[in-house]
Amino acid sequence: SLQSSRFVKVIRARNERGAVVVKLFVKQDNTVSYTKYIRRIRDINSRLKGVHNAQGFERVIDTDRLVAVVRQYHFSSLYDRISTRPFLSYVEKQWISFQLLAGLADAHALGVCHGDIKTENVLVTSWCWALLADFASFKPTFLPQDNPAAFAFFFDTSGRRTCCVAPERFYNPQTDKQTIAAVLVSETDEFREGDLTPAMDIFSLGCVIAELFTESHALFSFAQLLAYRKGEYDITDTLNRIRDPEVRNLVAHMVQLDPTKRSSARACLKLWRGKAFPEQF
């Protein structure tokens, strides 16, 4: 077993191609239809086949008792790699950040959003090739801000209490109902569905890049992100841990509170070419 949570159980297994990761979701309620989620995962997998810095699930297995999704096993996530010797050099951090932006740009061009970008969902090979993995189209887009258990259940499966979820994905059940009702599938559900946007992924990737360049100092905890959403939390001290001013500016741009001010992944690559990223990339 690699990881267990109330939402999914993650195990390492083997098939004819070698080691794989299997995520198991037990069907607690047989009256709920999982067809649309399975169809969505398979559609995303087919779209991502040509993306070099993203890895979808190889198989989706649906049974009466559970749903299993399978992908290739990689030895290290970015979260583990940051704290493993030999530590990443500055250029390696630049290269990983560049690859993640490139992979995200390619995925967005294909109409695919990730939904749960964090260091645990970034895979890094021994030759420093980075892959966005575990695309989370099956998780809710919007969560109530007054229910931390909902965030922990879906997005904090490792129990770190860090938060890379975009602030616009949290809503106030008392005041935001009318504001976001137009994009909701159901206004009565506590965990609300809607369209993920590229800007949401940009925010999450900005948090990942910040954690990469600050040696595992997360930009936000869950409580800090909610305070940031209200304009009551300043991230300057954490950003100042990033020594390179261009990387610092990139992260600050990506995690702006207003999603309309965040540039696309492709635009970020162009704007910071020769600044945060060498021309050779």
Rg computed from alpha carbons, rounded to a whole number of angstroms: 18 Å
Number of H- or I-type helical stretches:
10
Computed structural class: alpha+beta
The CATH superfamily of the domain at 76-139 and 194-271 is Transferase(Phosphotransferase) domain 1
Content of β-strand: 15-25%
List segments where confidence is low: pLDDT < 50 over at least 5 consecutive residues: 178-188
| Top CATH class of the domain at 76-139 and 194-271 | Mainly Alpha
User: Which CATH architecture of the domain at 76-139 and 194-271 is right?
Assistant: Orthogonal Bundle
CATH topology of the domain at 76-139 and 194-271: the name is Transferase(Phosphotransferase), domain 1
How many β-strands, per DSSP? 11
Overall pLDDT level: 91
Succession of helices and strands: EEEHEEEEHHEEEHEHHHHHH
Pfam families: Pkinase
Keywords: Kinase, Transferase, WD repeat
InterPro entries: Kinase-like_dom_sf, Prot_kinase_dom, Ser/Thr_kinase_AS, Vps15-like
Domain Protein kinase: 1-281
